[in-house]
Write a structure and sequence with these properties.
It contains 2 helices and 6 strands; from the N terminus they run βαββαβββ. With 137 residues, it is of the alpha/beta class.
Length: 137
C-alpha cells in the first residue's frame, strides 16, 4: 500500500466560449474521458463548462455526463475563482482551451495544467504547464 501514489483531486475546466468550435469541444470531452481512464478516478472528476461565466460544475464519472454549455466571451478566471471556493480544493486544475483568454487567474492554491487545442501561439503565464493537444478529425 505504501508504494501506491495518491490519486489527485482533479478538476477539469472546459473552455466553452464562442471561439471553441464543436470539434474542439468534442476533443475536450474526449480528453476528460482520457483523464478518467488514466487516473482511475473512481470518485469521478469535477468538470466545469466556462466561457465568461460558469455554466456548469459537477462531478462526472463518464464523459457522457458532460454538458458543454456556453458560447459567449472568454474569461476562464471565473472558473478558477469558482474552484477556489470548492471544498476540498482540487490539487490540480486541467484547463482545456484554445488559449484565447486573458489569463487573469490570480494565484490559485492548486497547480494548473493547460491543454491547448488549436493554433494558439501567444504567451502563457509562467507556472502553467502546457500540453499541446492535436485536434482529431
Amino acid at each position: 500500500p505504501t508504494m501506491r501514489r495518491p490519486v489527485p483531486n482533479a478538476a477539469v475546466l472546459i473552455d466553452t466560449s464562442g471561439s471553441m468550435s464543436d470539434g474542439m469541444i468534442a476533443q475536450c470531452i474526449a480528453e476528460v474521458g482520457g483523464v478518467l481512464r488514466a487516473t482511475g478516478l473512481s470518485d469521478g472528476v469535477t468538470v466545469l463548462a466556462v466561457d465568461a461565466a460558469v455554466h456548469s460544475c459537477k462531478k462526472v464519472f463518464s464523459k457522457s455526463q458532460i454538458t458543454p454549455l456556453g458560447g459567449g466571451g472568454t474569461d476562464l478566471g471565473v472558473g478558477i475563482r469558482h474552484l477556489e471556493k470548492q471544498r476540498p480544493l482540487p490539487n490540480v486544475c486541467i484547463i482545456l482551451t484554445d488559449g484565447y483568454d486573458s489569463f487573469d487567474y490570480g494565484n490559485p492554491p492548486f497547480k494548473i495544467v493547460m491543454g491547448l487545442i488549436g493554433d494558439y501561439s501567444g504567451n502563457i503565464p509562467e507556472g502553467i504547464k502546457v500540453v499541446r493537444i492535436d485536434l482529431k478529425d
